[in-house]
What we know:
Layout: E1 6-9, E2 11-15, H1 28-33, E3 43-48, E4 54-58, E5 63-67, E6 73-78, E7 83-88, E8 94-98, E9 102-106, E10 113-117, E11 119-120, E12 123-124, E13 128-133, E14 139-143, E15 154-159, E16 165-172, E17 175-180, E18 186-191, E19 196-201, E20 212-216, E21 223-229, E22 235-240, E23 244-248, E24 254-259, E25 266-272, E26 278-283, E27 288-293
Parallel strand pairs: 1-24
Antiparallel strand pairs: 2-27, 3-4, 4-5, 5-6, 7-8, 8-9, 9-10, 11-12, 13-14, 14-15, 15-16, 17-18, 18-19, 19-20, 21-22, 22-23, 23-24, 25-26, 26-27
Amino acid sequence: xxxxxxxxxxxxxxxxxxxxxxxxxxxxxxxxxxxxxxxxxxxxxxxxxxxxxxxxxxxxxxxxxxxxxxxxxxxxxxxxxxxxxxxxxxxxxxxxxxxxxxxxxxxxxxxxxxxxxxxxxxxxxxxxxxxxxxxxxxxxxxxxxxxxxxxxxxxxxxxxxxxxxxxxxxxxxxxxxxxxxxxxxxxxxxxxxxxxxxxxxxxxxxxxxxxxxxxxxxxxxxxxxxxxxxxxxxxxxxxxxxxxxxxxxxxxxxxxxxxxxxxxxxxxxxxxxxxxxxxxxxxxxxxxxxxxxxxxxxxxxxxxx
Length: 305
């Protein structure tokens, strides 16, 4: 249908040092999500602060790390949770989507983690996964839980700056990463178990209409995970289980295939570097962050609040 996408290779930018790796055979997250295999870490949620430091989460052990521009890890916080998505607001506040506790904030100076939104009308979420800011400060986030093709009830929400919580869709098979286009009238959502990307047109009143598939992927080991957008509305898709990050044009044409130089668990992505053309990729099996150089700069991920 399309010519093969151009290959872009990666290199290791940073590797979690041995002293920060753990192997707990009784870790509850690993028992469910890794079929009982011991894991020493599972990095996700990359996001840059204003100083150029990269923050990542470690889901099974409830940790937040800061990686310096030189690739050095520092433990910022450790708490009783399962952090998955992480984004940094323009004012420096760090927001986390936690599978067990909902939306949290992290004070990077003290390491204190606080609750923002734990329940909706006294009902707990299925299990939050990822989030993205709109420019006005609204937060879009996914409530994935254990949903899939057998139970397509995953949800996407919008949390307004005034505290109002709005349900966008409630029928996604495993909603995961999400990103807005540059005009912010399209929301893209990775439906991991459906192995596809949903395209959600946002109406002027905040509702959605004519939701459809943007890209259908293939493979049986995982599916699309984290998403990012560049300045030309090209969509970056981290394909967990395939060791690949795809870059599709706004028309859905495959432009580049970015190949992992480590394992297959390419889970999430963030743009950074001096011109914002470097793509940083969490490869969760090896506990590494990979680096690729792309031709177009990424869209800034900060909100305006």
